[in-house]
Each structure stands twice: as structure tokens, then as C-alpha cells.
Amino acid sequence: MSGKPQKSQFHLLTIKRFAPFFGTQFLGAFNDNVFKNALMGMVTYGVLSTSLDLTQMNNLGAMLFIMPFFLFSAIGGQLADKYDKAQLIRYIKLAEIIIMSFGALCFLIESTVGLMVMLFLMGSQTAFFGPAKYGLIPQHLNDDELVGGNALVETGTFLAILTGTIAAGLISTQENSLTLAAIAVLALSVAGYLMSTQIPPAPPKDADMRIDFNPITANLYTLRFCRRNPSVFMATIGISWFWFVGASYLTQIFVFTKDYLHGDQGVVTVLLATFSIGIALGSLLCERLSGHKLELGLVPFSVIGITLAGIDLYFAPVFPVPTELINAASFFAIPQAWKIILDFFLLGTFGGLYVVPLFTLVQKRGEAAHLSRIIAAIAIVNALFMILSAVSAMILIGLLKLTIPEYFLWLAGMNILVAAFMFHSMPEFIDRFLRWSKLRSNGDSSQ
Questions:
Q1: Cβ count within 10 A of residue 210
Q2: Are the C-beta atoms of 275 and 269 separated by less than 8 Å?
Q3: How far apart are CA 359 and CA 378, in angstroms?
Q4: Which residue of 33, 279, 370, 414 has the fewest CB atoms within a 10 Å radius of its CB?
């Protein structure tokens, strides 16, 4: 392709080897977030009854959703390496229709217990989908399209989270919210399956392998694939740390908004939207900043940005205590608010610039025959890191009584330490950063 002008990543949305896959994964993420947030909204506002308080419901829901990644990710990775990934995705989307049919029924009969079971089933479906999803991308895209393809997938995922959250909020406040939620989740699952039927074949890479259905031995065997390749292992640590940091900020954003910014749910939505839009923009910028190639120099650059934004949040201005919580419109009118908005936007933007090169590294350097199992290992480690993020918050905020800004400062410090470990273990990150910085300063992004 040398000598030809390189097309924008957006052209991938017009070609059959990517567009149906993108639509399928977007609809799946959108549906997940419509369901989860509609459920929590209805519990919060009393549409659905429960004997647990909201904090207990949140913790139980998170546990039910994360548990399947430990149980089924490794098996999902084996299936994706053994069978055609496109066909496997269609089976998974058919399973989603069945699962969401049960979920729709639970909404209609107002079964909170059934809806909580749904979280486990949705997590199970996602655990099987992830390895096929990321393993399929390098089979359908050329090397110079991988960065753009991964960027679009990350962009689509976070925009699906954002729009799904907003849609759920609208649904849960309607008089006929239970019926609307039932129709929405079932219709979205059917649309996702129909979209998946257009995904071109993605033949298996290891058709002769034997499936190990024991979660413990399968997990241990799968995790060994990451350890065999040092660069893939470092990428796994980096990607999982991204989810640790992201989960930490997003979990604390509610209390931070209420207790420090004195804002209502509308202000929370503003900050969540700002963070998600930042992730989308950062992901899309990767292709331009890397010259359509894998550029590991973006990782140290992003670490600097994430750390500085986190430190700046520690120095968040003190907001005057109002007589009642302020809404989004009033928040925008406060000059100091724009500093907070900018910090969350930068956290998202640098987060997108950080994670896309790491996923691309895994796809380019992971063994093709084992790639889906490597992706499964990443999902397992991601789940572990997200649990650790919750435990760290409970210890530092709950037991040691750190304030939320102090916790943000701790995250920034830990970000430096984790990055130092990664860069010491894999000096290529720093070497590429220095070369990339020099090229950018000379006005040349080519390599």
C-alpha cells in the first residue's frame, strides 16, 4: 500500500468485513447498559422492590456480572480458536435473545430476583463474546487497519455505554417503564443477531484442539499463553490497569459529585458523558498520531496525561455548599466547574490513547492459533483488577478514611508505579516514545 494515500479509519464502517461486526458489538454493549442501568434506576426509584439497600444491590450486581469472566472466559477463548468466530458470534447472539426474553419477562412480572440472575447470564454471554470479538479483528483487517479498527471498537463500546446509560435513564422514569424496558432489551438482542448474520466467515486457527471445560485448569492453561510472550504479558498488565483506573474513577464519581461538587444526577451524567467522549476521541486520535501503525510510544505519552489529570483532580476547587444540589445547567454556569470537566475529558482522552495501542500489540504479536485464548486471559486479569479496584476503595476510603480527592491522588501515584514496572520490564515503550516524540517534533508521524 506504499505510495497510496491512506484512508481514514471511518472507511472501515462502509466495508462488509468490518461494518456488520462493529454494529453487532455496538448493539450488544448498548443492550447491556440499557438493561443494567434500567434495573438500577427502577430499584433506586422504587419501581422494583428489594430487601437490600442500594449499596448492597450495586455490590451484588457487580459480583454477579464479573463472576462469569472467571468461570467462562477461558472456555470462550478455546471455542473461538477452535471454531469459526463469525459463526460462534451468531450462536452467542442467539443466546442473547433467549437471555433477554427471560429478562423481558422478569421486567413484566416485576421479579427483581430474576433480573439479578440476568446480570450473571449477561456476564456469561459477554465472557464468551469477548475472545471471539477481539480475535476476529486481525482476521478481517489488514495490518495498517488494525489501529483504526481497534479505535473504532473502543469508541463504539464507550459510546454504547454512554447512550445506553442515557436511554436507560429515560426508560426508568416513564410511567410504563417496565414494559418499555422489556421491549427495548428484546428488540436490541434481535437486532444484534440480525446484524451478526452479515459478518463474513472467520475460519478457526486451531481446529484440532480439545476443549477443557474445567474453569480452574482452563484458566491456568489460558493465563500461561500471556506469560510465554513478554510483550503480550506487559500489554495484558497495561490493559487490566486501564480497567482498574477506569473502574476506580467511575465508581467514585457519584460520591465525588454529590459531596464535593454538590451536584445532582444530571451533573454525574455530564461527567460520565465527558469521560466517555474523551475515550472515544482519544481512541480515534490513535490512528492519526501513530501513522496507521502500531505505535507503543503513545503509551508513555498517555501515562503522563492520565497522571497529570488525576493529580489535578486532587486540587479540585472548593465549591460553595448550596441550599440544594445543583443541576447540570447551574453546574455549567460555575467557572470552576470547567476545570473538573476538562480533567475528566483528559482522563478519557489519554485513556483511549493508552489502551488502543496495547490491544493492537496483543493482536499483532500474539500467536495467531492462540489469540482468542490470549484475549480470554486478558478478560480474566481485567476482572481480577476490577475486583481489586473495589477492594482498594473499600480499604483506602472506608477504613483509612481517605477523601475522594486523596484517593484520586493515590491513583495517580499508583499509575506512575505501574507504568514504571511496565517500562522497566519492556524498555521498548520508552525507546518508541523518544523516537515518536522526535518525529512529532519534526512534523513527521511516519516511521
A1: 7
A2: no
A3: 10
A4: 414
pTM for this model (two decimals): 0.85
Helix (H, G, I), strand (E, B) or coil at 341: helix
Name the one residue in this structure whose C-alpha cell is 523518544.
434
Sign of the CA dihedral with 163 first, then 32, 59, and 283 last: negative
Cα-to-chain-centroid distance, residue 88? 22
Name the 3-class secondary structure at 64.
helix
* Separation of CA 391 from chain center: 19
433 CB-side CA count, 13 A: 15
Question: At 1, is the pLDDT very low, low, confident or very high (cuts 50, 70, 90)?
Answer: very low
DSSP character for 7?
P
For 191, counting Cβ atoms within 10 Å of its Cβ (0-12 exposed, 13-18 middle, 19+ buried), the class is: middle
User: What is the rounded distance in angstroms from the CA atom of residue 170 to the CA atom of residue 177?
Assistant: 9
DSSP per-residue string spanning 253-318: HHHIIIIIS-B-HHHHHHHHHHHHHHHHHHHHHHHHHHTTS--TTHHHHHHHHHHHHHHHHHTPPP
Residue type, 179: T
Q: Concatenate the DSSP letters of all residues of 188-254 into one string.
A: HHHHHHHHHTTSPP---S-TTPPP---HHHHHHHHHHHHHHSHHHHHHHHHHHHHHHHHHHHHHHHH
Cβ contact 140:24 at 8 Å: no
Q: Which amino acid is at 425?
A: S
What pLDDT is stored for residue 429 in this prediction?
94
Q: Where are the alpha helices (DSSP H) in 52-176?
A: 54-82, 85-108, 112-140, 146-172
Separation of alpha carbons 21 and 16, rounded Å: 8
Distance (Å, rounded) from C-alpha 107 to C-alpha 98? 15
Grouping H, G, I as helix, E, B as strand and the rest as coil, residue 326 is strand
Q: What is the sign, positive or negative, of the torsion defined by CA atoms of 419, 420, 423, 424?
A: negative
Mention every residue, 6+ apart, whose C-beta is less than 8 A from residue 392: 248
pLDDT tens string 371-423 = 888 889 999 999 899 889 888 888 898 889 899 899 999 999 999 999 999 99
CB neighbourhood size of 13 (10 A) = 13
